[in-house]
Amino acid sequence: MSDDLSYVQPTINSPWGTYLSQVDRVVPYLGNLARWVETLKRPKRALIVDVPIEMDDGTIAHFEGYRVQHNMSRGPGKGGVRFHPDVTLEEVMALSAWMTVKTAAVNLPYGGAKGGIRVDPKKLSQQELEKVTRRYTSEIGIIIGPQQDIPAPDVNTNAQIMAWMMDTYSMNVGGTATGVVTGKPLHLGGSLGRVKATGRGVFVTGREAARRLKMDLRGARVAVQGFGNVGSVAAELFAEAGAKIVAVQDHTGTIVNANGLDLKTLLPLARAEGVVGFKGGDVVANDSFWDVACDILIPAALEGQLTAERARKTQAKLVLEGANGPTVPAADDILAERGVLVVPDVICNAGGVTVSYFEWVQDFSSFFWDEDEINQRLDRIMMNALNQIWDTADRHRITLRTATFAVACERILMARQERGLYP
Ligand code: GLU
Asked: 157 CB under 6 A from ligand 1?
């Protein structure tokens, strides 16, 4: 027994509150390892940094940055960095914890970490963005490293930002440390297949779930929330498999077309300016996205989107969590009662970190694989993990989320126990 954390007061649907309730649900399946469960309910280490930069107009701006290392029992910390005006310490804690569970679920030799800066990158010039990135990297440089904690892209961060992070860290240590971040540009130690890996993993797990539900992907209707690196790639792969993308929502609004949106024209437009200017669909109110007629729902935006109310009205039979933490616990219960299958984030979107792992391994060996090899290994790891989770779910008659937590938390807490407490 221990006291609650003083620096965060989780509320019911907050990301950290959601994570804690997911952990509580797994305790009955942990056997003697439950003794260690408290370790999952607090981050190992959390750093808050000030990120001051000189703006283009000569003023000085300060941004708040975070890096949270939730758990390192199974290996170095691993997880992305997001730039978003609403980022908080509590959110980054939850995201770091989900990374711990995710890396363990697919059995990568990592712990979990996450970072963020409370900033709206759309309001920064390219030069300001570079300054923010470099100063943040320098500030968290005392706790990251190829063997300590390896950042990667997340919401609003990309290969260019990873290149600046790699360069800043390298300059500070006096070398070229490609293994300090993943998701880098190809010619700087990046890996083929990394950009599409998260969306690909969503597709691979979704295809298997559909097969088990006896749902034919040809003609299946798919609704996607969030049309960034995860949602748009998943949509493309589902469309290639014959599915119809009937609704897409992004930060500009929601478009629908019951006959399927034409992705070839939508994708470039969405990347440039968002989805609402698209002529091949109807713009509808954002709230209508949640009860659109569809078979598969892919929340691939931010946390807490699938609320109880939205879970009650969705027509989907399958939910694929491209985002981290999109479903609140009450919604999970409603979906389970309604017989809607949820492939949880901690396995569904693990494709990104899996290819990040390949990138890190390739950087260490300075030997690079071709894309076929990467995709084959990715598919194999995701399918093995999913099958094991499915067996666990069937054995205990629990949801895929609780089963994923059961498989992952057993690995994490076993490592914790074997390492023992120091001193
Ligand atoms: N940001 C991604 C995630 O949430 C990838 C993290 C990584 O590659 O380390 O899983």
From this structure: no
Q: In Å, what is the CA distance from 276 to each residue of 232, 248, 260, 284?
A: 15, 9, 15, 9
CA of residue 98 relative to chain centroid, distance: 8
pLDDT digits (tens, 9 = 90+) for 12-29: 889 999 999 999 999 999
Per-residue confidence (pLDDT) for residue 134, from 0 to 100: 99
Give pTM, 2 decimals: 0.98
Q: What is the position in ligand 1's atom list of the atom closest to the CA of 155?
A: 1
For position 2, what pLDDT does the model report?
A: 66
Q: Same CATH fold, 197-339 and 15-177?
A: yes
The pLDDT of residue 1 is above 70: no
Pocket test for ligand 1, best of 82, 91, 154 (most atoms within 8 A of CB): 154
The domain ranges of the chain are: 15-177, 197-339
> Given the CA of residue 82, which atom of ligand 1 is nearest to it?
1
* Ligand 1 centre distance from Cα of residue 350 (Å): 7
- Mean pLDDT, residues 81-100: 98
Query: 15-177, what's its fold?
Result: Rossmann fold (3.40.50)
Distance 65 CA to ligand 1 centre (A): 18
pLDDT in tens, 283-301: 999 999 999 999 999 999 9
User: What would be the CATH architecture of the domain defined by 197-339?
Assistant: 3-Layer(aba) Sandwich (3.40)
d(CA 271, CA 262): 14
